[in-house]
From TrEMBL:
Any GO CC annotation of this UniProt entry: ribosome
Major subcellular site: plastid
A Pfam family this chain is assigned to: Ribosomal_L33
Organism: Lennoa madreporoides
Designated name of the protein: Large ribosomal subunit protein bL33c
Lineage, broadest ranks: Eukaryota, Viridiplantae, Streptophyta, Embryophyta, Tracheophyta
Keywords: Chloroplast, Plastid, Ribonucleoprotein, Ribosomal protein
């Protein structure tokens, strides 16, 4: 049995624009994406530009804790 931690882990990316603005007044949601990252290659928090369906534009999505 392999006792080491898994190298690839599942992370959740959340829109930083929606969180800062407290979710738009028009909609009541926060955009989230689920993806995987390699723990050895990217030990820091992951940040990607993704489309936010609540802001209607591409925004920065950052990794959050589970």
């Amino acid at each position: 049995m392999n006792k080491r931690k898994d190298v690839r882990i599942t992370v959740i990316l959340e829109c930083t624009c929606c969180v800062r603005n407290g979710a738009n007044k028009i909609s009541t949601g926060i955009s989230r994406y689920i993806t995987q990252k390699n723990r050895r290659n990217r030990p820091n928090r992951l940040e990607l530009r993704k489309f936010c369906r609540y802001c209607y534009k591409h925004t920065c999505h950052g990794e959050i804790k589970k």
